[in-house]
Structures are given as structure tokens and as C-alpha cells.
Amino acid sequence: MDGVKLQNMLNEYRNLPYPEIKNIYQNHAYANLLYDDLSGELGELSAVTQYVYEHLNIQTEDILSNVLLGIAIQEMKHLNLVGDLIRKMGNKPYLISSKGTYWSSSNIKYQDMPLKDLMNYNIKTEEIAIAGYRKAIQKTRNLEIRKLWDRIIKDEKNHIKIFQEIISELDSECVNEKKT
Fold it and tell me: Where is Mn(2+) bound in this sequence (predicted)?
């Protein structure tokens, strides 16, 4: 694995700030919608714990393990931003889905699988997160909130690019092993 390349990809938006949300009014219905992004089955809390779990289990691959931890930290920032917005809209940032289901560690994929399959699973969950934020964009006219979702989507798309790069490197390593 090219650790420098993956680390550079991870840091691509590090200095791009998240928009500050100042003018928020209570909106319980919109805040309820955000519980899925916060702590739904594939929300930010699940992403954080999934990537920490993967980091812990892939420690024999130092580069990959560190990249997964870095992604988990970015997802923690998203978790904090979504929770803060829910609070500003008048709700408590409970760790529940929009249907009131409590977050559970059963949301984590504990299955052992080849790294390539795991990275494909991660891509799928990032795509679901992006879809959730796009849905949230459609449900508000608040430009500050829309800018926040757009900024988070940039991170999620970047995570997909990182996972795709890892897959590409795994495929390349596999081809090189077959040649020798």
C-alpha cells in the first residue's frame, strides 16, 4: 500500500472548514429526519464504530489501519456536526433512528471477509450516507444547512475514492504476485 498517497487523499479536505450554522430555528420535524444520519443503522455513529473496528482488526496492515482510523476521526466530526444541528433545532441528539430505534452495535459488520470485499462494503455505506445527506438537502431551504451537507458529502465522496484506491492497490498487488 502506498501510505503517502492514501494519507494525502485522506488530508485532501483537512483545511477546508465546515460552514458555521448560526441562524437556526426550532424545527422538530427536520431534526427528527436527521436522527438517521446521526445514529441510524448506517448513520455517522455506525460509520465511526465500523471504521474503528476495522482499524483494530487490520493492525497487521499498518498503513491501511491508520487510514481507517483517520476516516473514523472524520466521521466523528460529522457525528458531532449532525448532533449539534439536531440540538440547535430543539431536539436532544439521542442515539436513535428517525423511527425511535436505539443505536446498537449490531449495526456493525463483524463478518471476516477479504479486504477487497470489506472496502466494497465501505463504499456502499458511504454511498448510502451521501444519499441521506442529499435527502436532507432537499428537505430544507436553509442555505447554511445545505452548505454543511455539501461539505460533509465532499468528505464522504473522498472516503469512496480512498476505498477505491485501496481496491486498486490490492488488485495491483494480486497481479504482481501472479507474475512472480
Answer: 44, 75, 78
